[in-house]
């Protein structure tokens, strides 16, 4: 049977913005040993800004326009940043055959031209030769009718409390912190280093994230728990696979909130610290 203190613990947690979907998860949180974070929207704000536009044989405005059009049906944070930088109304009559390819980008027909906008993986998949020089940041490469049209450099910011949250986790007996991301290696490593994350895996597709999580299970002790924290975009399978799947409720999708065991009502990584502290306190009272 469930000790009464667990109900108190769940109630107390909810007052602090942490929704726990059962006493078993509250108990498990106290045994968290490895914490795995998604990057975009979890440790970073998930709000990209356009930094530079590098067109190839078209103008900057034309490149931004075609990218914004191709992305206009997506609600990925990258898409939203391009809409915002473009800033003009989208004429839907110009767009057809929109397809979003998770972990890659989008394809669409704009004024009858086949447009692809996304990362290097997307360009490779479509056999388009793209700029492979050094890019410091996240690039959205664009191709029009199979021909490279340049790239748009975007960047996201680390959340103000991410570093403190990770430091506090380590003081609270979290043995290992890990970051998973579909973003490129350079960006991923820069962020992981500045956040003192122990291990980083980049350029992952949503299915690869599940595989990396599987591997991490072999690193934990018998009683230790593996926690995954994500904002939700494509993360439902990883949330479901972890011992404790934690979704950030603010930006999180309905699918993520459904798949999660714990929902943080605000998007602050420090709420995870709060959740672990409450669970430890509750466990002490229960024993
Ligand atoms: P993350 O792991 O950072 O949450 P995603 O799995 O959503 O990222 O996407 C991984 C990568 O795929 C992005 O960094 C980006 O390069 C590319 N990508 C995904 N969706 C889009 C999109 N709508 N437009 C452009 N690029 C995209
Ligand atoms: Mg994501």
From TrEMBL:
In its UniProt entry, what is this protein called? Cd2+/Zn2+-exporting ATPase
Q: Which residues of the full protein are shown?
A: 277 to 563 of 614
Question: Any idea where this protein resides?
Answer: Cell membrane
Per the similarity annotation, which family is this? Belongs to the cation transport ATPase (P-type) (TC 3.A.3) family. Type IB subfamily.
């Amino acid at each position: 049977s469930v000790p009464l203190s667990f109900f108190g613990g769940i109630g107390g947690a909810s007052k602090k913005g942490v929704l726990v979907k059962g006493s078993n998860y509250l108990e498990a949180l106290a045994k968290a040993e490895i914490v795995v974070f998604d990057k975009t929207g979890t440790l970073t704000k998930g709000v990209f800004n356009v930094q530079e536009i590098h067109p190839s044989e078209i103008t900057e405005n034309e490149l931004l326009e075609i990218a914004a059009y191709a992305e206009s049906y997506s609600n990925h944070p990258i898409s939203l940043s391009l809409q915002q930088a473009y800033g003009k109304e989208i004429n839907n009559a110009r767009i057809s055959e929109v397809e979003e390819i998770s972990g890659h980008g989008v394809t669409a027909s704009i004024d009858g031209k086949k447009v692809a906008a996304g990362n290097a993986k997307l360009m490779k998949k479509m056999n388009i030769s793209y700029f492979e020089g050094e890019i410091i940041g996240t690039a959205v490469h664009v191709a029009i009718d199979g021909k490279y049209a340049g790239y748009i450099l975007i960047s996201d910011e680390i959340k103000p409390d991410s570093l403190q949250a990770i430091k506090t986790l380590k003081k609270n007996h979290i043995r290992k912190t890990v970051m998973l991301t579909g973003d490129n290696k350079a960006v991923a490593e820069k962020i992981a280093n500045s956040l003192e994350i122990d291990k980083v895996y980049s350029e992952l597709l949503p299915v690869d994230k599940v595989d990396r999580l599987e591997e991490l299970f072999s690193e934990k002790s018998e009683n230790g728990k593996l926690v995954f924290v994500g904002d939700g975009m494509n993360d439902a399978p990883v949330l479901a696979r972890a011992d404790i799947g934690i979704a950030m409720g603010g930006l999180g999708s309905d699918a993520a909130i459904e798949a999660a065991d714990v929902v943080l009502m605000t998007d602050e990584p420090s709420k995870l610290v709060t959740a672990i502290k409450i669970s430890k306190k509750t466990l002490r009272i229960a024993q």
